[in-house]
Amino acid sequence: MTAEPQEKNRHRVAVLVLHGVYPLDMGIPAQIFSDRPDTPYELTVCGVARGDVATSTGFTIGTTAGLAALAQADTVIVPGYQDFRIPPASEAAAALQVAARRGARIAAICTGVFALAAAGLLSGRTVTTHWAGADALEELYPDVHVDRDVLYIDDDPLLTSAGVTSGVDLCLHIVRKDLGAAVANDIARDLVAAPHREGGQSQYIPRVLPEPTAHSLNTTRTWALEHLDEPLHLEALARHAKVSSRTLIRMWRQETGVTPHQWLLTARVNHARELLEVTDLGIEQIAGQSGLGTGTNLRARFREALGVTPSSYRRNFQHTKTR
């Protein structure tokens, strides 16, 4: 059953593409915030002026609006662009400043953070960007602290992410904040993307890529998601993967950037969120089905991860009852 949007009013999203924009970075918000029956988003792709914008790979894209779109946007997203050492046009910086002053949420994917920094929006803040651009960001904007070891940072109302796929994580995080886990997970399934990667995961895992025939834990992680209501001790995961517990821990960190325990906790909280949104199950039942055990533990994990109680979360995000 399709969930109804939480708000009837449209939420205007403006994607500001600058000269030399990375096509993949631009395509992420364009896809995630496109018109869907279960979301309120209204997407506009804009440039410094209406018309064609050259991408980093040489072809051009057509924008349907100029900077005036930022004046009406509830959320502004700046994808990464190639010549990030060169400040964007002064008109673009001014438009970002105006959007920030009136309270718009502003997000940057990859090197899009340089445009926010050039506009003076990030002074004293902690941000992230693609690991290859981190040194340049610190060099050009010494009053900005750069965290190289995360996928994205939500310093509401300013959000920043590392490169490409981290932009998917950031945009899904925004949807999750706006509309809840069920809608975000539906969009992730459409994209065949991971439904939830925590922003604190490492963006760069220094390891040699495995050979195509090498052993992977993907199957075990999929199995774990299907058995979250079970204890799933380290030994059970290792037994399913047919490796030792020590090997499992090493491989899990190599492939995900987090420990099995951290990964399972995130998966269980996310599953509990979806159950709160789309069912009438009680807190104890949800705690059992998500593998969090008791309502007391569920409440503690929600306060720790989200800063709210399960009941408050349900009031804010319950869309459609399916059971």
Give the helices and strands, then pairings:
Elements: E1 11-16, H1 23-32, E2 41-46, E3 51-54, E4 60-63, E5 75-78, H2 90-101, E6 105-108, H3 113-118, E7 126-127, H4 134-140, E8 145-146, E9 152-155, E10 158-161, H5 165-179, H6 181-191, H7 218-225, H8 234-241, H9 245-256, H10 260-278, H11 283-290, H12 295-306, H13 310-317
Parallel strand pairs: 1-2, 1-5, 5-6, 6-10, 7-8
Antiparallel strand pairs: 3-4, 9-10
Helix pairs in contact: 1-5, 5-6, 8-9, 10-11, 11-12
What does this structure look like?
With 323 residues, the protein is an alpha/beta fold. It is built from 13 helices and ten strands. It has helices at residues 23-32, 90-101, 113-118, 134-140, 165-179, 181-191, 218-225, 234-241, 245-256, 260-278, 283-290, 295-306, 310-317, and strands at residues 11-16, 41-46, 51-54, 60-63, 75-78, 105-108, 126-127, 145-146, 152-155, 158-161. Helix 1 packs parallel to helix 5, helix 8 (234-241) crosses helix 9 (245-256) and helix 11 packs across helix 12. The termini are close together.
Query: Averaging pLDDT over every residue, what do you get?
Result: 89
Secondary-structure class: alpha/beta
Low-confidence stretches: 1-7, 200-213
Q: Kindly state the percentage of residues in helix.
A: 40-55%
Radius of gyration: 21 Å
The CA-CA distance between the termini, in Å, is 11 Å
* Number of separate strands: 10
Biggest sheet record: 6 strands, mixed
Q: Could you provide a short overview of the structure?
A:
With 323 residues, this protein is α/β, with parallel strands linked by helices. The chain has helices at residues 23-32, 90-101, 113-118, 134-140, 165-179, 181-191, 218-225, 234-241, 245-256, 260-278, 283-290, 295-306, 310-317, and strands spanning 11-16, 41-46, 51-54, 60-63, 75-78, 105-108, 126-127, 145-146, 152-155, 158-161.
